[in-house]
Amino acid sequence: MPTVAASPRIFELALPDLALERGGMVRSHRARGWWWSREGDTPESLQPGVPTVLLIHALTGSAQAGGQGGWWEPVIGPGRALDPDQFRIICFNNLGSCYGSSGPGSDGFPTVRNLELTSIDIARAQLLALDKLGITKVHLTTGGSLGGMVTLTLAALAPARFERILPLATSVAASAWVVGWNHVARQILRLDPGYPDNIGRGLEIARQLAILTYRAEPGLDVRQPRPAFANSASGGYPIQSYLEHQGAKLRNRFAAQAYELQLATMDHHDLLQPLPGDNRPAISRVHATTLVVDIDTDQLFTPAQAEVLAGHLRKAGARVERATMSSLHGHDAFLMEWETLAPILTRALQLEAPAS
Ligand SMILES: CC(=O)SCCNC(=O)CCNC(=O)[C@H](O)C(C)(C)COP(=O)(O)OP(=O)(O)OC[C@H]1O[C@@H](n2cnc3c(N)ncnc32)[C@H](O)[C@@H]1OP(=O)(O)O
Ligand SMILES: N[C@@H](CCO)C(=O)O
User: Fold this and answer.
1) Domain 9-174+270-350 has what CATH class?
2) Which residues hold substrate (predicted)?
3) How far is 193 from 191, CA to CA, in rounded Å?
4) In terms of Cα–Cα distance, which of 164, 353, 166, 153 is closest to 269?
5) Cβ atoms < 10 Å from Cβ of 90
6) Which residues form ligand 2's pocket by a CB distance below 6 Å?
7) Which residue among 262, 335, 336, 337 is best mutated to probe the pocket of ligand 2, counting the most ligand atoms within 8 A of its Cβ?
8) CA 283, CA 275: separation in Å to the nearest integer?
9) Which atom of ligand 1 approaches the CA of 332 most closely?
10) CA distances from 62 to 70, 100, 195, 246, 334 (A)
11) Handedness of CA 43, 41, 68, 341 (dihedral sign)
């Protein structure tokens, strides 16, 4: 019988309390999710036999992966690479963010100063959400950047649950380069006189700095070409007004404490360390068949790091394939290059499942 996709929707889950890896407890724990699947397959009532695709958003994304305004809108939908006629496509807002899941300011979220969050905490919250929904196997899990870190962490925490993973533009552990950029961004936030509750210019400038690391020189030259003459003191170069626009956009949609917590999850990501209670590198637990994808112009998570990640996964005994996205745009190409991304997603969905 042909299947028909329903409309995408947002849903809320009440989850068990979560003890955080570096101390603190999330009480009144909740997750906001986004769901697109066949007619009749709902968060309240799973239809048997619908394979699940779990999408994990990056630093400042939200659960809304597809549909109008979704961060992967062009690759999700009937007839597209991720087709809700065929797959149950879900995404959760990351723990500690500001788009509906437990995070700074929400009831029961720890209020201690200098709270630290890790990619393990985000992954554990997502495991609790999958438990609550009754999803025991995930056909494909994917995400870029921080989303890739959480993807790898999920596959290390629950190796039997995740059949295929597609970590994009990410690494086995955050490099000193990544931690260094995040450090500078954090110091900029803290210089703002309104930090943290009434932050303004600090969040804008931190985002401007970050945007330059998310892009690459050739793409900026194409999209923000230099005019023959401009005044830089008055912001007359297109790249200047572009960065101002990007900074203002984030200031209007994100919170300083949530931004800091998400930066920390990247900093602390290190699957070369054992998981709590284990003694081997976390990455060696991954069993999922994996397509490791890098971006040739990515200055944050380099192709060399993707090779290192693939090496660790092969050593762990996982089936591993590699692909490279070629782009002018650098790290954020995974949020921009739809024609390159779509066949990669199609390939990942078709990977052979690991022998159980
Ligand atoms: C809940 C949520 O909103 S989450 C939204 C989903 N986003 C994410 O998940 C990640 C966050 N997003 C991003 O990192 C980025 O938006 C990306 C990587 C997806 C794409 O970058 P974009 O900013 O859309 O593309 P691009 O770099 O071409 O910039 C386009 C924007 O800059 C503006 N712009 C472009 N050039 C200039 C310029 N010279 N001067 C001023 N503004 C400019 C455009 O008008 C456009 O503005 P708009 O976004 O308000 O419509
Ligand atoms: N541009 C991404 C971060 C880098 O992947 C975001 O804002 O979520």
Assistant:
1) alpha beta
2) 207, 332
3) 6
4) 153
5) 24
6) 58-61, 144-145, 214, 331-332
7) 335
8) 9
9) 18
10) 8, 9, 23, 17, 15
11) positive
pLDDT at 193 > cutoff 60:
yes
Out of 37, 62, 101, 145, pick the active-site residue: 145
Residue 208 CA to ligand 2 centre (angstroms): 12
Active site residue 183: no
88-92 and 25-26 strand pairing = unpaired
| Binding site as annotated, residues for substrate | 207, 332
- Known binding site: residues? 207, 332
Tokens of 305: 């790091």
Segment 322-330 shows an average pLDDT of 98
Measured distance CA(343)–CA(346) in Å, rounded = 5
User: CA torsion, points 313, 311, 91, 63, in degrees to nearest 10?
Assistant: 150
Please state, in angstroms and rounded to a whole number, the distance separating the CA atoms of residues 134 and 45.
9
Report the separation in Å between the CA atom of 103 and the middle of ligand 1, taken as the mean of its atom positions.
Answer: 24
CATH 2.40.30.10 applies to domain 177-266:
no
pLDDT value for 1: 54
Domain ranges across the chain:
9-174+270-350, 177-266
Q: What is the dihedral of CA 305, 152, 121, 14, to 10 degrees?
A: 140
Three-state secondary structure call for residue 16: coil
Q: What is the pLDDT of residue 293?
A: 98
CA nearest neighbour of 157 among 312, 289, 276: 276
Q: What are the tens digits of pLDDT across the range 281-305? A: 999 999 999 999 999 999 999 999 9
* Torsion sign over Cα 103, 117, 172, 276: negative
